[in-house]
Design a protein that fits this description.
It contains 10 helices and 8 strands. By secondary structure, the protein is of the alpha/beta class. The two termini are about 35 Å apart. It binds uridine-5'-diphosphate (UDP) and magnesium ion. The site of uridine-5'-diphosphate (UDP) has 16 residues, from strand 1 and helix 3.
């Protein structure tokens, strides 16, 4: 249940940065972002989410938060994945506008003043769209292309192609996003589902400033499946049609055999065709079951109602977190540092 009118006493702008093993880029990130934010001359906060990094990210973050009161950090208990880390950051953001951004400077921070300007013009969501993806591998580009087209078609939820999580959201949008309780968080789809007054800002995606991308082929594949299964029930419906087609084919074949038997008598041989038909249809059956299982598995995960993330400690939040309507966390506020 959404609080009818969330009292906003926070800053104008919140930047949310998920970080997983980003020790190599972290200092550089702040060196670039902080002057831009200072330059845009408004009150802001930067909320970093340490997503269970195994490297020096956390100690470095502690030092930075200590030095700059505008920078805060949420330390999750383990690696929850980017989408959930982002959700945690957004839950704690208090700004009237919230911008999630990657720590590796692939989302150019120079766009922030432009995004804020568009927001001031009255847009609720300013989405950045990649002009070209030269910095990504060919395979990644092709699969991304195919993916956006497929999901857009199947789900009926428009997902602007080549948009990432890098966007500005008005407080209205943030509150709406917080009302989506699902555990399987396919952010692009969630953003697409929201609606609101949107505008797109094109940009060129750069190479990572340092470190390595955490995405492997398998992760992208799984993200793709996530996009399809959590935004469309089309795969379930397809089986109705496949089943119907098979039934029609089976009836036709039955008639054919009937007529042939009447004309030429019964012929006993037929084991190979029989076994291939049996194998083919048991294969189809299993695929159908698998698809059902995908949805059932999702129902299972949602029904458990586990918290989305767990927080180990909060760094630099002097007056406690901004509380949304959802309370997914077991919060352990043993203070900072
Ligand atoms: N990230 C995270 N948790 C993860 C993986 C990634 O918080 O499990 C963060 C990462 O630190 C970075 C952002 O998500 O700030 C994007 O990650 P990455 O650059 O590896 O992805 P890519 O740019 O290749 O899509
Ligand atoms: Mg990156």
């Amino acid at each position: 249940m959404m609080a009818p009118n969330p009292v906003i006493k926070g800053p104008a702008l919140s930047i949310v940065v998920p970080m997983y093993n980003e020790a190599q880029v972290l200092e550089n990130f702040f060196a670039v972002v902080v002057p831009i934010l200072d330059g845009s001359a408004q009150d802001y906060e930067v909320i970093c989410v340490n997503d269970g990094s195994q490297d020096e990210t956390l100690p470095k973050l502690r030092r930075i938060c200590h030095a700059n009161p505008r920078i805060k950090a949420i330390n999750l208990t383990r690696n929850f994945g980017k989408e959930i880390a982002l959700t945690a950051g957004i839950d704690f953001a208090r700004g009237e506008a919230v911008i999630p951004i990657d720590a590796d400077l692939q989302d150019p921070p120079e766009l922030i003043p432009l995004m804020v300007e568009k927001w001031r013009e009255g847009y609720d969501m300013v989405t950045t769209v990649r002009e070209d993806r030269q910095s990504d591998s060919l395979a990644k580009r092709l699969s991304a292309d195919l993916f956006y087209r497929l999901v857009g078609k199947m789900s009926g939820t428009p997902i602007p192609p080549h948009s990432g999580d890098y966007r500005l959201m008005d407080r209205k949008v943030v509150e709406a996003l917080k009302r989506m309780p699902e555990r399987t968080r396919f952010m692009k789809g969630l953003f697409g589902w929201l609606g609101f007054k949107q505008i797109e800002v094109p940009y060129e995606r750069r190479l990572r400033s340092a470190g390595r991308s955490k995405w492997k082929f398998w992760d992208l594949w799984n993200l793709g499946l996530e996009g399809i299964f959590s935004f469309s029930t089309l795969p379930l419906r397809i089986w109705t049609y496949i089943g119907a087609a098979c039934a029609v084919f089976a009836i036709a074949y039955l008639l054919f055999i009937l007529v042939r038997t009447l004309l030429y008598g019964a012929d006993v041989p037929g084991y190979p065709s029989l076994i291939s038909v049996v194998l083919f249809f048991s294969g189809l059956n299993m695929m159908g079951l698998g698809i059902l299982g995908e949805y059932l598995g999702r129902v299972f995960i949602e029904v458990k109602q586990r918290p989305l993330y767990l927080i180990d400690d909060l760094i630099g939040f002097e007056d406690g977190p901004a509380d949304g309507d959802r309370k997914p966390t077991v919060r352990n506020e043993r203070g900072d540092r």
